[in-house]
Amino acid sequence: MEIRMRKRKVPNSPGKKFWFFALAYLATVIGDIVLTYKGTPDLAYEANPLVAVFGLGWGALILANVINYVFYVTFAYHTFVRYRRPTIPCSGMKQFVSMLFFF
User: Fold this and answer.
1) pLDDT at res. 5
2) Can you give the pTM of this predicted structure?
3) What is the count of structural domains for the chain?
4) Whole-number Å distance between alpha carbons of 26 and 92
């Protein structure tokens, strides 16, 4: 008796990739803020130019991280969810190469 295992197809969901990267980056931003607070609560050793050069405090540092996160999520959304790869309709390899180089 032979047992056959069927391969399960896992759908390649762009939405899942988007949420994975968005949440992973959010965890990274929160971890950065927490570790900065634990390492230097007075921001004496912070290398961010908002703090080191301009002398701004925690508010500016957190606001910069929030703005950065909003940009990241916007770009990730357009990359993984909204963007569709362009397709070149052609009937053979010769037409494909022609369309690839001269389109």
Assistant:
1) 58
2) 0.71
3) 1
4) 46
